[in-house]
Amino acid sequence: MLRLPVKDLKKGMIVAQSIYNHCGGSYLVRGSSITPKYIQRLEKIGIPTVNVTSADPNFQLQPPEDIVQETTRFDAIQHVYSAFQSVEHEGRLDAQAMEKVSDNIVRDIIQRKENLVQLTDIRLHDTYTFAHSVNVAILSAMLGMLCNYTHDEMVVLTLGALLHDLGKIDVPVRILTKKTRLTDEELTEIKTHPEKGAEHILELEHELPSTGILAAIASEHHEHIDGRGYPRGLAGDDIHRFAKIVAIADVYDALTSERPYKRAYTPNVAYNIMKKISPGQFNPDLLNLFFNNVAIFPVGTILKTEYGYAIVKECEFGKTETPVIVLFANPEGKLTPSPLIIDLSTDPRGAGVIEMVIADDELRHFIHELGVDPSKYLREDAVLA
Ligand SMILES: [Fe+2]
Fold first, then answer.
1. 73-88 burial: b if 16+ Cβ within 10 Å, else e
2. Measured in angstroms, how far is the CA atom of residue 371 from the centroid of ligand 1?
């Protein structure tokens, strides 16, 4: 996958990540082929970059399958948008529609359980909350399934995740979208959203099912298991088990998405931050389970390894640290005559050979230098040793 400035897009390139507008409509759908009309439209809207599966329009490489259908995701974003609007303006929401959306997410995930989480989407800054809530719901449902929750439990968990940030309707947009560092007062204001969200949910008692659990998810999703979170500083088992799940999904999605004040981190950076830099924040068993099914090095990632440069060809459940790679260049960056497939899960050195992930800017330069996009080694018909 490669992030390209819109001016460098070419007809026939395949979109690797969907781009949504604020209420779930799509500017660009993952898997579609770029046309001159799309390019014009993206320029007009002011979208700076697009992720494509290959820099070579002739490769026509499809992105890996998502864990939910595109229509499920669109529909969910639209309904979260409407729900936030109607709670804010009318103090109610369409509970039936929200339950249906949650049920659809759960059904998709159960049906597509062999799919790893590989790519999500691109959110425009002012529209972050809705698409984020849907991603958090999808990731939470996935984790619920890995915990062997029942279908009904998964639906409640998903619904709670969709509404986990509902309290943000009471935080001024100015603060939510601020590009610079927040003042202490602004931070205090933002930190009220878990409890405000829980209050709104409890007021919907006659419309929504399981409001007690949904309110616990909203109020406890920023608590840490070591007691250092907010708003109440709850620890360990005092935090609802669903809130512990949503906490992981929430932080992962926030780290891997672009925000007004930061670029999107790659999944491996998010993994390092969550596993190593934040001990005590998450339940370690849940975190391990989560990263068993979230690709740390998604298919198409270019790696610098001790053996040379390689592209990730496959990643499997439980082996996300050790993907199958295609080694195509030596450590000096010179193309090897016959690329080699290495399964790092059976390689004696394993994950230890991975030195770094090649960043987007560097990758564009690298492709230019090589004169070839390594994504060609992912094609079915690529001849490999
Ligand atoms: Fe939150």
1. bbbbbbbbbbbbeebe
2. 45
Buried b (16+ CB within 10 A) or exposed e, 150-176: eeebbbbbbbbbbbbbbbbbebeeeeb
Give, to the nearest 10 degrees, the angle between helix 151-162 and helix 70-90.
60
How far apart, in whole angstroms, are the C-alpha atoms of residue 313 and residue 302? Answer: 10
- Please give the model's pTM, rounded to 2 decimal places: 0.92
Cα–ligand 1 centroid distance for 24 (angstroms) = 20
CATH of domain 2-52: 3.90.105
CA of 52 to the centre of ligand 1 (A): 30
**Cα 6 to ligand 1 centre (Å):** 32
**358 CA distance to ligand 1 centroid (A)?**
31
What is the whole-number distance in angstroms between the Cα of residue 113 and the centre of ligand 1?
27
Domain 70-292 grouped into CATH 2.30.30.60:
no
Q: How far is the CA of 243 from the centre of ligand 1 (A)?
A: 11
Burial (CB count <10 Å: 0-12, 13-18, 19+), residue 91: exposed
Q: What is the pLDDT of residue 23?
A: 64
pLDDT in tens, 310-365: 999 999 999 999 999 999 999 998 999 889 999 999 999 999 999 999 987 788 88
Radius of gyration of the chain (CA): 21
Element holding 14 (H helix, E strand): none
* Domain range annotation of the chain: 2-52, 70-292, 302-378
Calculate the alpha carbon distances from 34 to 13, 19, 275, 352 in Å.
Answer: 5, 13, 37, 38
User: What is the residue whose two structure tokens read 């409509």?
Assistant: 25
